[in-house]
Amino acid sequence: MPGALNKDPALAEREAYVARYGVAPSEADHATLLRMIEDQLKEGLKTMVEPFPETDREFAAIIDTLRPLGADQLREKLVISGWLLKPYGEEEMRCQECMYFLVHKRWCDLPELSLPAEPDWWCRLWRI
Amino acid sequence: MANLLWLQGGACSGNTMSFLNAEEPSACDLVTDFGINVLWQPSLGLELGDNVKAILEKCVSGEIPLDIFVFEGTVVNAPNGTGEWNRFCGRPMKLWAQELAAAAQFVVAIGDCATWGGIPATAPNPSESQGLQFLKRQRGGALGAGFTSKAGLPVINIPGCPAHPDWVTQILVAVATGRAGDLSLDELQRPKTFFSSFTQTGCTRNMHFAYKVSATAFGQRKGCLFYDLGCRGPMTHSPCNRILWNRVSSKTRAGMPCMGCTEPEFPFFDLAPGTVFKTQTVMGVPKDLPEGVDKKGYVKLTAAAKGAAPAWAEDDIFVV
């Protein structure tokens, strides 16, 4: 199956989403996208929770990694951003207090992520 | 009639350009309505060479009474304290500045460079620049911490990069019309009438600040620029959103973060890469919080504000 081996990973990821949800992330509605995120993390997707970007340089480096990703590369976005379905740390940091989180739209407005989110979730791009 | 002399040291002429755009009052109004006699100004003066030098010498000697000495730009001391890098009328400008300041009734520093040293004084400060009475936040400068002009006032600092034209002309009118005694200066010698409030005062994004909704790109009409884009409006003293630029707008109204240019530390973080137009944080919390707010209070305020934010705060309310 040389054709399958050479397949563009982004394309392969898109096809996998279409096969499971009937739609790719770039075309999915809010609820479907939310389900895609929850399913992957509940099924054991390990994300890069640490290191937490302590400085703006480190923050910018993560953003630079996210920026070239396409809207269908949802898994990479979740992994690189260190996405969690629960608050993080002793201070219980969570999306609810993050400045990128739109409370009513339940949306992460960070342009490089631009994904649905829940108030009690968290990622390492958290800023207050 | 009040004689005014305006010189430029290490300057880009930005404050002169700003001054010439003044509207309330205009530069012409200063002459026609408020009795200011402009002895010489780099962009307005007709004299050249020796004729300028003659004016300066007469001011220093007292032959021409010098009521207001305005200085724009830094006092350049390089190389090695000589000031030779900035010569004017046959000698270092720093000597003219010192002698004219001593001869003047009032001394007014216009713009960041003349007040604190501004961009030229940013590390490593190759031109050995200083402001007239400050180097950044440190008192002293070219004239020394104890300097007072003949009228008994220290240098009146009107910072900004550039200073708003009307800040300049309104202060010049106050001085020229004998109301300098009404001027109240803050600890950095800025007129309190302009520099007690914050850039944020009057900002159209205050609702987004209150509800912690962030702008995430320049030019967006919704969202506050403080949280992500490095806006210094909550900790910068200026009336930029009270006395609007060109009478119609301000940086923040146009979607551009305030850079804090009326504060001595400008440009902040010595322009290190990644520090301009990006809010500096430590573990996700801004390094510089709104003046008077501590970290604990800020976190609590954020939680409460986010919890109370109305849905419209997430939308662009400035719809054409």
Report on the structure:
The complex is a heterodimer of chains A (128) and B (320). Chain A is built from 5 helices and 3 strands, in the order H-H-H-H-H-E-E-E. Chain A has helices spanning 2-5, 9-21, 30-42, 56-66, 74-81, and strands spanning 101-102, 107-108, 115-116. Chain A has a 3-stranded antiparallel sheet. The model of chain A has no long low-confidence stretch (mean pLDDT 92). Chain A has one domain (2-116). Chain A is mostly helical and 128 residues long. In chain A, strand 1 (101-102) and strand 2 (107-108) form a beta hairpin. Chain B is α/β, with parallel strands linked by helices and 320 residues long. Chain B has 2 domains: 2-194, Rossmann fold, CATH 3.40.50; 197-315, Cytochrome-c3 hydrogenase, C-terminal domain (Cytochrome-c3 Hydrogenase, Chain A, domain 2), CATH 4.10.480.10. In chain B, 24% of the residues lie in helices and 13% in strands. In chain B, the strands form 5 sheets. Chain B has a 5-stranded parallel sheet with strand order 2-1-3-7-11, with helices on both faces. In chain B, strands 4-8 form a two-stranded antiparallel ribbon. The radius of gyration of chain B is 21 Å and the shape is elongated. The N and C termini of chain B lie far apart (49 Å). In chain B, 44% of the residues are buried. The A-B interface holds A 52, 54-57, 59-60, 93, 96-97, 99-105, 109-111, 126-128 and B 212-214, 216-217, 227-228, 274-275, 278-286, 298-299, 302-303, 306-307, 309-311, 314.
Q: List SSEs of chain B in N-to-C order.
A: EHHEHEEEEHEHEEEEHHHEEH
Kindly state the percentage of residues in helix of chain B: 10-25%
Provide the CATH architecture of the largest domain in chain B. Answer: 3-Layer(aba) Sandwich
Name of the CATH superfamily of the largest domain in chain B:
NADH:ubiquinone oxidoreductase-like, 20kDa subunit
Any idea how many domains of chain A? Answer: 1
Radius of gyration of chain A: 15 Å
Strand line-up in the sheet with most strands of chain B: 2-1-3-7-11
| Measured distance between first and last alpha carbons of chain B | 49 Å
Rounded radius of gyration of chain B (Å): 21 Å
Largest sheet of chain A, described in full? 3 strands, antiparallel
Greatest interface and its residue counts? A-B, 23 and 28 residues
The averaged pLDDT of chain A comes out at 92
Number of domains of chain B: 2
